[in-house]
Amino acid sequence: MRGGFLGYLLNEARNTVVREIERELAPLGITNAQFRVVVGIAHDRARTLSEFARFLDMDTGAMKRLLDRVEEKGWIKRKRSPDDRRTLVLELTAEGQALYPKIMEGVTRVHQQMLEGLSPVEETQLQYFLQKITANAVP
Question: Which residues are bridge partners to 80 per DSSP?
């Protein structure tokens, strides 16, 4: 195979996971992009507009609009950074903190569904290979 359909297969797998997460989280009123903001804050992956734009690979204009929507839903708030008053830091609100475990339950169900039929060894191998592919892409 040596890469022949690798990009296609990775993209198809990603699209399937995103579609299933959207379906699973729909009753919570949250989209895949919005869930990634809540989880990104909860897991301390990003705290500012520019960090989120890099983390989610979005331009800052689109990222700002996404953050605005998540803030309008009451799940996040922006506060001035104590280190740099020009910077706004994102935090989960009490509503966002309460939503987080519900999101993770849904995402876990989707992940379990996607891994159905794989042995524990195969699951570990899959994660290893995906991490290795990602690491190979980083210069």
Answer: 88
Write down the pTM of the prediction.
Answer: 0.85
Quick one: pLDDT at residue 3?
56
In a domain, residue 1? The reply is no
> Position of tokens 């039929």?
117
Number of Cβ within a 10 Å radius of residue 54: 14
Domain limits for position 33: 6-137
**In the block, which residue shows the tokens 């104590």?**
82
Provide the number of structural domains found in the chain.
1
- For 46-101, what is the HEC assignment? CCCHHHHHHHCCCCHHHHHHHHHHHHHCCCEEEEECCCCCCCEEEEECHHHHHHHH
Q: Which residue from 134, 125, 138 is spatially nearest to 6, judged by alpha carbons?
A: 134
56 vs 63: CA distance, rounded Å: 8
